[in-house]
Design a protein that fits this description.
alpha/beta; eight-stranded mixed sheet; three-stranded antiparallel sheet; 15 helices; 15 strands; 40% helix; 14% strand
């Protein structure tokens, strides 16, 4: 089962370290099956509970994964190897369109907001024991969520979307639990699921969002949580339509115990309406980040959800960082109330670049997708070769491996920095690098 490699150790920590050494040295290969716990315990002369504890540690570290009676295996890619490391560095003279960053020119200036926040802070600084959420921030966020049809619920503030999702997953799930995730989907989320020792279950999607049948399959198979991006899906730009939301709500209604997480990171940069799934299952959250519209360095997201989930998030947060800076929260209040960002104008700017690129690619026989947000997904036959040829042609694009589990290959193009004159040149380069590729389903 393990070839020549021998797992050693008497304590759980020693056994876990032995497996990690084997993985690190390449002697335990990705996907390799580990011995059953009782078998290994007998071989090492230890209690089976000791091996169980070692395997639990390895799952939590993202080194192995367990699939019930199918046993424990070395992960296909250790969780410590972030998908973000599968990036293409742009050497001098090469345009970087792989990073997923917003257009800096569309971000608002922050000095006035922080100056106003500092003046308010001088009048009443945030101290230990104060409420962790700025009341004005919560009120504005709640009003916006209600306008989009999100059910009433308490509000928490976290350090970005990923921080929010991690806290929510930790509030309900344990290592080994399965999570239904979009495929292709946000690479950082896929990394997070692995790092928490959770098992990702890929859900194929089309331009209208996750396919209901795929979600049904994942939930029937035991997934305890599902993560959905309502609009500006990364990397495909998919948007959950009203009809698709109705179908997904019907699926979720048959699994009320499932945790539903909706990531609305596209808030304030897209003109597509949100069709929330919130409130169908017993435990749910909707997360909104300031990163894309106001700047990634703000590191702030608001979330609302059912009372139990939000209470657990706030309770655990108090035992760690305590709260997100009150000064930062007040600065976001100033940005929101001053209307520093015109969502319609921002959405229009990204849509014009995105749609122009899609048209130019279609004219060259290259099918691509991107209904919202700042990214375009191009299915390809040879992902590695396409990335390399585009780099040689002067364009650094994101390899689809950063976003895929089992879906077909592709590359992601971020349109944020593109100007009118760039579109035709990029489309020519993509057509030459990828060849004619018809549009097809993502997964």
């Amino acid at each position: 089962m393990l070839g020549e490699y021998r797992i050693t150790g008497r304590r759980a920590s020693e056994i876990a370290a032995s497996v990690e050494r084997g993985v690190g040295a390449g002697e335990l290969l990705p996907g390799q099956l580990l011995p059953p716990m009782r078998e290994l315990a007998t071989a090492l002369g230890v209690n089976p509970n000791t091996v169980a504890a070692a395997y639990r540690t390895l799952r939590e570290r993202g080194v192995i994964e367990t699939a019930g009676r199918r046993g424990s295996r070395v992960r296909a890619r250790p969780a410590s190897t972030a998908r973000g490391s599968l990036r293409v560095d742009a050497p001098p003279g090469v345009r970087q369109i792989s990073d997923g960053n917003p257009d800096v020119a569309l971000l608002p200036p922050l000095q006035d907001a922080f100056a106003a926040a500092a003046r308010r802070y001088a009048e009443r600084p945030v101290l230990y024991g104060d409420a962790p959420v700025n009341p004005r921030l919560a009120g504005i966020a709640r009003a916006g969520l209600e306008a989009d049809g999100v059910p009433d619920g308490p509000v928490a503030v976290t350090s970005g979307s990923l921080d929010a999702i991690e806290r929510v997953l930790n509030a309900h799930l344990r290592p080994g639990d399965a999570v239904a995730v979009e495929d292709p989907g946000w690479g950082s989320l896929l990394d997070l699921v692995a790092a928490l020792g959770l098992r990702p279950v890929p859900v194929a999607l089309d331009e209208d969002g996750p396919r209901p049948g795929e979600v049904q399959r994942a939930l029937d198979g035991g997934a305890r949580a599902v993560v959905v991006t309502g609009r500006a899906q990364n990397p495909t730009g998919a948007v959950v339509t009203q009809e698709r939301a109705r179908e997904l709500r019907g699926v979720l209604a048959r699994h009320p115990q499932v945790l539903t997480i909706e990531d609305d990171h596209g808030y304030a940069i897209v003109d597509q309406p949100l069709h929330p799934l919130a409130g169908v299952t017993d435990h749910w959250v909707v997360v909104r980040s300031t990163a894309k519209a106001y700047g990634p360095d703000l590191r702030l997201a608001v979330l609302t959800g059912d009372g139990i989930t939000v209470d657990r998030v706030l309770g655990r947060q108090q035992l760690g960082p305590g709260w997100v800076s009150g000064l930062l929260q007040q600065a976001v209040v100033e940005l929101w109330t001053s209307k520093a960002v015109d969502p319609a104008a921002v959405a229009r700017a990204y849509a014009e670049r995105r749609d122009a690129l899609l048209r130019a690619l279609a004219e060259r026989g290259v099918g691509a997708q991107g209904r919202s947000g700042m990214n375009v997904w191009v299915p390809v036959v040879d992902e590695t070769g396409t990335v390399a040829r585009l780099l040689h042609a002067g364009w650094a694009v994101a390899p689809g491996a950063r976003f895929r589990i089992s879906s077909p290959p592709g590359v992601r193009l971020t349109v944020s920095s593109l100007k009118g004159e760039d579109i035709e040149r990029l489309a020519d380069a993509v057509a030459a690098a990828a060849g004619p590729v018809p549009a097809r389903a993502y997964g």
